[in-house]
Amino acid sequence: MSRVVVTGSSDGIGRETARQLIDAGREVIGHARDADRAKELRAALPGLRDVLIGDLASLAQTRALAAAIADAGPFDAVVHNAGIGGGAPERVETADGFERIFQVNTVAPYVLTALAPRPARLVYLTSGLEAQGRVTFDDLQWSSRPWDGMQAYSDSKLFDVVLAFAVARRWPDVLATAVDPGWIKTKLGGPDAWDEVDDGAATQVWLATSDDAAARVSGVYLKRFEQLEANPAASDVDVQDGLLAALADLTGVELPR
Prior knowledge:
Layout: E1 3-6, H1 12-23, E2 27-32, H2 35-44, E3 50-53, H3 59-72, E4 77-80, H4 100-115, E5 121-125, H5 149-170, E6 175-179, H6 197-209, E7 220-223, E8 226-228, H7 237-251
Parallel strand pairs: 1-2, 1-4, 2-3, 4-5, 5-6, 6-7
Antiparallel strand pairs: 7-8
């Protein structure tokens, strides 16, 4: 039986991903940012093996979550689903001094990838807005630019694809992919979204578990089981190495070779 961790699984696409994995007979570890959400998740999905707690807006709690994943492992796959949306009217800084969207959407999956034992498969959720993302290494934190919440979100989702492609290149023994789940009817997507939540989870469940040749891929960007062309910056080795170096400098955590 394969074992899978799904971050951000207390609601939305993450919860549906965990549910589909459980229904498929997988052993699943969920994740919630606090004890109340963990309790709710356990009640909603009693088939979970466990729920780990950690607020990804905190670097210390993200490090602790990586240690908890290590203690609960080994795992066959980790689905990096957790994330927050854009559109915030002003820049919000976390206690660690990071811009919040950047920390949750980019820093957290990087730190978890670097510190938790590497599984056979890593799936990173991105967004179609990655196509509008821009690489600005001299101001990743939006500390000197006029604030634009949607651009900050688009940038963070591009960085998720860059991270997936960088990990695929650095770790040839791991299948690392990025998935656009689509515009899904969740709290984040809103009621006007086009697609249902089960559609938004299906591709990452397939990538995390399937033995189909089409699922055993690495360094690619997918939506609805099909490979798409990502933002060209994601395939730029200099961009990949630049992001890894910037994240290592900001967090003090190096991605192992």
